[in-house]
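BUG: 3D viewer hangs when loading the predicted structure for this chain

Environment: internal workstation, default settings.
Expected: structure renders.
Actual: progress bar stalls at 90%.

Input used:
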Amino acid sequence: MENHALHSGSIVENYKIIKKLGQGGFGITYLVKDIKDNKLYVLKELFLAKGCSRGSNNNVIIDAKHKDLFEYSKKRFIDEAVLLEGIKYYSIVRVYKHFYKNSTAYYLMEYIDGISLMQLVEEKGTLNKDEVIEYIFPILEAVKVMHKNNLWHRDIKPLNIMIDKINNRSVLIDFGAVKVINKQRFGLIDDTSLYIAYSDFFSPPEQHPQFSKGVETDHRSDIYSIGATIYYLFTGKPTNFNSKNFENELLTTNIPKEFQQVILKSTKSRKEERFDNIEQIQKVLIPDTEPFLSNENTVKTSLFTPFTDTIIITIIITIIATIIAFIASDNNKLLIASIVFIVGLIVSFNKKNKASRNISKKGNIKLIIKSNTEELEFFLENKKSYTLGRDFSCDIVIPSKLTHVSRKHLKININNDIITINELKTTQGTYLNGQKLKPNQEYSWEEEKELILVNGDCILLWKKLNKENKQWEGLKKKK
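Structure tokens produced before the viewer hung:
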């Protein structure tokens, strides 16, 4: 492929080209530096390998035969940029903006200082179970977010998963083959990508250019690629998933049984036989525990306050009382309805008072656990240690539906109102003020620092009871 990349030192808007990172059929990527603040970014340029050349002033020159293709490609390129600008997720590469320059289009991306999973396996060798969990689980969450937004990546492979060497974070990149369903939601021109990527071993049969006629891709195409990627991380080599001997071959490997199950089902030739969603994969790899078990020092809150709960229950009781009165005999209608209504109100107000009483539990440290759907409060005592996780043996039990939180995730130590934490064995990690914690190492948890379990679905805050004014102080929720 002829090199038409911009030279090192060239300026595109406010960005100085450091070096070319890669070039494909539809674009060139560069490492660039912002000349204002010296921050590093990745800049992607639309450039057709066939049909484009570079002018002396860095403008892209399109030959007459490819003008229509270039204009269509430019619309798709901007669509890709707009799409990614709207997705802000910790394990999906960030896109900050797009712009036009040099008679073509560009978009600016997050620079991830690290290596791909492909490079990691090539340099280090195959990964063990803990390493696969650490790197693949954030990608499962990323794909789950995409699928919930009707987006299919269609090019998941170890080469498109970067490992940030600063915090060991795995990030999904390269969305050039993404397919969008519900184009109106994103304001895009159509529902198909500019091209369908195909990578030997990692892409499903329905994406193969020779054998895919009449077979539509869908979200299960990503499921296949995830299974193939997991297999590669454990073995470091490709294989034929469609071989009659593949299942027997899989049994002879050192791959853990639960991962074998995921690989075998994910890589079925017929997409109808694969897992239907990411949640099914996660349930195989981390089976749910029992539902959340509250204890005497825990208060579970919801969108409904005790007062609004009372109103709702009162309405329900009134309806039930009316129905009973309607079907009862004339002589007993008023009596039965009154009894049901009064008993119902007693139960309802008792619930309200009980919720209020629970808040007054002993403990001068109030731990607040926030998830997307609920909020928990736990009152901790001085000079004590607490374990936190999904397992019932923990002192602080996290709801089982937060499957990415480990069974025994964290240890919290309190001594003279000073809180320290130790991360136990986890699948995805814990972040304190943006820093990833190292397992079994003690960290000081200061008042103005957020403790984030894995991907931000579970955030821990704490407040201290002021003994003079009896008010809770400490970490405040960020606006």
